[in-house]
Amino acid sequence: MWMRGLSIAxxxxxxxxxVAFGFQEESVHVRAVRTENPPEIDGRIVEDAWQQAxxxxxxxQKIPVAYGEASQRTEVWVLYDADFLYIAVRAHxxxxxxxxxxxxxxxxxxASDDRITISLxxxxxxxxxxxxxxxxxxxKRDGLIENSDESYEWDGIWYADARVxxxxxxxxxxxxxxxxxxxxxxxxxxxxxxxxxxxxxEEDRWASPTPEIEAFNMNGNGHLEGLxxxxxxxxxxVVPKLALRHTDDGQxxxxxxxxxxxxxxxxxxxxxLTGALTVNTDFGEAEVxxxxxxxxxxxxxFPEKRQFFLQDAGIFDFGGLQRNPxxxxxxxIGLSNQGEEIPILVGTKVxxxxxxxxxxFVDVVTDKYQRLPDAxxxxxxIGVKNLAVARASVNVLEESTAGLIFTHGDPNSDDENWVLGxxxxxxxxxxxxxxxxxxxxxxxxxxxxxxxxxxxAWGTRLVYPNDRVYWYVIAEGIQENFxxxxxxxxxxxxxxxxxxxxxxxxxxxxxxxxxDHRVTTSLVTDSHDDFESAEITFDPVDLANAxxxxxxxxxxxxxxxxxxxxxxxxxxxxEPGRYSWNRxxxxxxxxxxxxxxxxxxxxxxxxxxxxxxxVEPSVAWRPSKHLVFTAAYDRRDVDLDFGxxxxxxxxxxxxxxxxxxxxxxxxxxxxxxxDSIGVNTRLRxxxxxxxxxxxxxxxxxxxxxxxxxxxxxxxxxxxxxxxRF
Length: 725
Known about the structure:
By secondary structure, the protein is an all-beta fold.
C-alpha cells in the first residue's frame, strides 16, 4: 500500500511543471537468424551470412528531438550459431571526416566519441543485463546492469572490431554465450541498440527513443527473438596466474623478491548463478589511487579498483547508498586503514539469481600482517582474518526489490564485529507514461565487542530521476556506536543527515544542448538534533553544448558549528564555535573529443575565520589517437587568523595506445602533504580476450629539504590465461 501511496503522492506534489504523459510505443522486435557460416569479426560486414540476418533499420532520436528522424541512417544485422551471438552495425555518414574517435583504452570512458552501445537482457526480467560499447577505432567497453543501474567494472570475454570507410563506419561483434548468464528455455531476450553521434550531440535508439528512459533502463528494451539450440559448455573458466614482484626500498635498504603463482576459477552453477574461487590473489596490475586533499571533518573515500571485487559488485548494492554509511565496502578486504596491501590467501564468491532471488556471497581469508607505526611508533599485529558478506534480495512488483545484507569480521582489529541490514527499493519507470520514480528504505544494526547500545543506522529517500526535472529528498540517522567494520562511515559520532535537491533542465534548440538550474541543501545534526553543519548551494547556470563543452556557476552559503577542536593540519586547528561563509565557484571544461581540451575550476570563499582560494586547472593534448598527455594541478590556499597554509597536488599522465589491445600508461603524482612523488607505469597486452600480460613499475621519490631521494622501487610482472570448458 505504501508503494501505491508513494506514486499518488508524487503525482500530486506540484513539482512536475512538464506533466505531459509520455508516448508509450509498442515494443519493437527482431528475429536472430541462425547461421552455419559465422562471419569473420573484422569490421567489414561483407560475408554472405549477413545478407540473411535479422535486420533493424529506422533508429530514432532520443535527443535532441525525441522520436525524431535520425540525421544519419543506421543499419543493424543479427546472427547467431550454437556458440556466439553476432551483431553488425553500419553507421552511415554523409561525410566520414566528421566521425569523432579518439579513445583506444580498453574499458575507458568513450563519452567524447562516436560509438555504438548494445544492451542485452538475457532473462527478459526488465531489470538486469549486459552492456557492450564500441567506437569507430574498435575500442571496447563492457558493463553490467543491475536493477537498472549501470556499472562498467565487469570484464567479459567478447570480440569486436570496427572500421571507417567511405560510407561511414562499421562494427562487427561476437559475444560468446559462455560469457553470458542465459536461461536454458529462454528464446527471447531484451535488446537495445544505441548510436551516439558526438559532433551534434545526437543519440539514436532502436527502442524507447525518449530522454526519460536511459539506455541502461531494461524496461525500455525491444525484443530479440529466435535464439534456440545455443551452447554454454559446462560453464567453467580457469585462469592460472603468474606474478613476479621485486621491492627495493631506497630509504631502508630492504629488498625482497616474491614469485606468486595463483589461480582464479569461475563456475556457472546454474545458468544464472556463478561461483568464483581465487587463491593467492595478486592485485599488482590494479590502477593506483589518485591523491586527494582533505579539509573537512569527514574521511576520504577511494573507489575500488581490484577486478575480483568489482566483478558483480552491483549485487551487493544496498539501499541506494553510494558512500555513507555503507554496510559493505570491498576496499576493507586486503587493504589496511593505512592503505597497506594485505595478502589474500583464498577467497570465494557466489553471485547471481535463483528465480526471483538475487544473491551474493563473499568469503575471504587474509594473511597476518603488522600495521604501520602509529603516532607512538607501535606496530600492532593483526592475525589471519576470515571476512564474509552475504547479500540477498527478492524481486517484487515489476521493478522493485526487498533484501537483507550481513557482514562479519573486522580486518583491522581482533574485536568481534558484524552488521545486519534490511532494505526495500521501489522503482517505477512508467510513472505518468514514461517517467521514473524511486523510493528506498533501509536500516542497519552493528554488533561490536564491548558495545551494546546506540549501534543503529537508518535511512529513506525519494528520487525523481528524469531528464527535464530531477529531484531527491534524503533523510538518514547514524547512531554514535554504529560500526560497519567491513563498510564505510565518513564521520565519527552520531549524526542525522538531511539532503534535498531540485534541478530543472531546458533543452534549447540551438548552440546550447542543456541548460540546468539547480538548488541543493544539506543539514547535519548530532543524534540529539543539535546543529553541526548545513549548506545551501545554487547552480543558476550549468550548461553544455552538443560537443560536450561545459560551463557552470555556483554559489553556496555554508554553516559550521564545532563543539570540539578540529585539526586542519598538524599545526592548524579550528577552535570550537559557530561559523558561516559564502562560496563562489566557476567551472568550465572543453570536450575531451578535441585535440586539446582544457578545464578550470576556480573557487573563492570565506573559510571559518579567514579566507580560502582554490584553483584546479587541467589540460589534455591528443596529438594522435595513439598518444595523450594530461596534466592537472590542484591548489588550496587557506588564510586564517591563526594560521596560513597552501596545499598542492600535481599530476601528469602519458597514455600510449599502440592499438586497442596494447597500451602503456604512466601516471605521476606529487602532493605537498607527504612531500613525495609517486610514479606508476603499466604496460598492458591483451593477447586475446581473457588472456593478458602486465608489466608494472611503481617508483616512490621522497623530497627532504629540497633533496630528492629514492623511495621504494617495485617492478611487477603478471600473466593471466583463461581456459574455458
